[in-house]
Amino acid sequence: MRIVVGVGGGIAAYKACSLVRKFTETGHDVRVIPTESALQFVGKATFEALSGNPVHTGVFADVPEVPHVRIGQEADLVVIAPATADLMARAASGRADDLLTATLLTARCPVVFAPAMHTEMWEHPATIANVATLRAHGSTVMEPASGRLTGADTGPGRLPEPEEIFALASLLLERSDALPRDLEGRRVVVSAGGTREPLDPVRFLGNRSSGKQGYAMARVAAQRGAQVTLIAGNTIGLEPPAAVEVVHVTTAEQMGTAVDKHSVGADAVIMAAAVADFRPVNVAAAKIKKGAHEPNSIELTKNRDILAGLVQARRDGHLAGLAIVGFAAETGDEHGDVLTHARAKLARKGCDLLVVNAVGEGKAFEVDNNDGWLLGADGTEQSLDHGSKALLASRVLDALGPLLR
Ligand code: CTP
Fold first, then answer.
1. Which SUPFAM superfamilies does its entry note (predicted)?
2. Does residue 391's CB lie within 6 angstroms of at least one atom of ligand 1?
3. Mutation pick for ligand 1 pocket among 213, 251, 277 (CB with most ligand atoms within 8 Å)
4. CA distances from 301 to 14, 289, 316 (A)
5. Do the Cβ atoms of 146 and 49 come closer than 8 Å?
6. How far is CA 64 from CA 3, 29, 69, 327, in A?
7. 179, 203, 64: which is closest to 110 by C-alpha?
8. Helices then strands, each counted (H, E), the chain
9. Residue 363 binned pLDDT confidence (cut-offs 50, 70, 90)
């Protein structure tokens, strides 16, 4: 695919280098178009070396090839990172005073802006209006991350991490349409990762969930405009998604407490976490040692089912109107195939949607791609095509939208 990476003039321009690298490493043909001021932060040679293509900022280089029109027309995706307040203002008003803005006017492919600026600039009515205009024009403007900005200030306006921009850009290539803003004003709770049930201060019972699918759910929901709380169990060093509140927990009991607390007033809960069904009855205060008192078995007790608890609370009228999504990682066995088990689980759990993944043989756990089925309480069944975890998340959210009160 032909990807244009536009780079605005902000300190986060250095992160565009990692982004360019990710695109070239995944086999894309990348053209980097910086603004003149972006070159104050990162040199032209860096972008040329990373992309393997010439880099220009103005419309008067290679004139016979008409690059100010051709690059945009031929692009499959344009990603602007960092998108500064000034660059978005110029793009929103249709200016074409450099190669990048001219390219934006001629591009008919998906366009993603990854904003980076100080909080005051992001929250200024002029920027808010420009973002709304760009979205109305069909572009995807990402929610920025919160955190440390240049200097000591913190707040929303930080460039989302390159991995996150890459994930969202790849999702747009897979979906081939702009990301809808259909979750604006909605509160969504997502659980992710595996829980750990301690045996002693150094050992635990855990599972192979990486948290990647839950993080993708949270990330895509936030970028569709939802206010998202992510209850994260153990994950493999994942970056917190931009514009998402992350609550870290360890055990199933802690996860249950956090999910219960944040579900109050939420529109949807998505239980992507792999919650341990059992925990050790006794947790040793000191490390269990070899020697005189070696244990030869671990006595277990059942954890409560968080998902079933939510469904019950809704039946009892405590969480009226809450949409509830469960996940099921299944293997077939002598009693039935994956879908047979999944249909039974949906009926047993009583949630509105069940996302079903077949696991084993390197599928679903720890990997970046996923597929499966989406079963609805109304009897609908949809297969979820193989693709990124963000694509699967996005399909689940497509189905969830109409279920929200
Ligand atoms: N779940 C939960 N609380 C638990 C166990 C599971 O909320 N104590 C949720 C998971 O987050 C997931 C769904 O229930 O959304 C299904 O999880 P799974 O482990 O497949 O279901 P179980 O009920 O444990 O079914 P089984 O072990 O019989 O396959």
1. CoaB-like, Homo-oligomeric flavin-containing Cys decarboxylases, HFCD
2. no
3. 277
4. 51, 23, 26
5. no
6. 22, 21, 11, 55
7. 179
8. 13, 19
9. low
pLDDT-derived band at 204, boundaries 50, 70, 90 = very high
138: left (phi > 0), else alpha (psi -120 to 50), else beta?
left
Catalytic residue among 207, 234, 303, 370: 207
pLDDT value at residue 67? 83
How far from each other are the two terminal CA atoms of the chain, in whole angstroms?
39
Average pLDDT of the chain is 94
Asked about 207 being catalytic, the answer comes back as: yes
- In the predicted structure, residue 364 carries a pLDDT above the cut 70: no
| 300-302 and 323-330 beta bridge pairing | unpaired
Atom of ligand 1 nearest to the CA of 191: 11
- Residue 19 Cα to ligand 1 midpoint, Å, equals 37
Task: List, for residues 250-302, the tens digit of each pLDDT value.
Answer: 999 999 999 999 999 999 999 999 999 999 999 999 999 998 788 899 999 99
- List beta partners, residue 388: 369
Return the ligand 1 atom nearest residue 327 CA.
Answer: 15
Q: Which atom of ligand 1 is nearest to the CA of 252?
A: 8
Q: Quote the pTM value.
A: 0.94
CA-to-CA dists, residue 282 to 251, 274, 290, 299, 305, angstroms? 14, 22, 17, 8, 20
Q: Is the dihedral of CA 325, 331, 336, 337 positive or negative?
A: positive
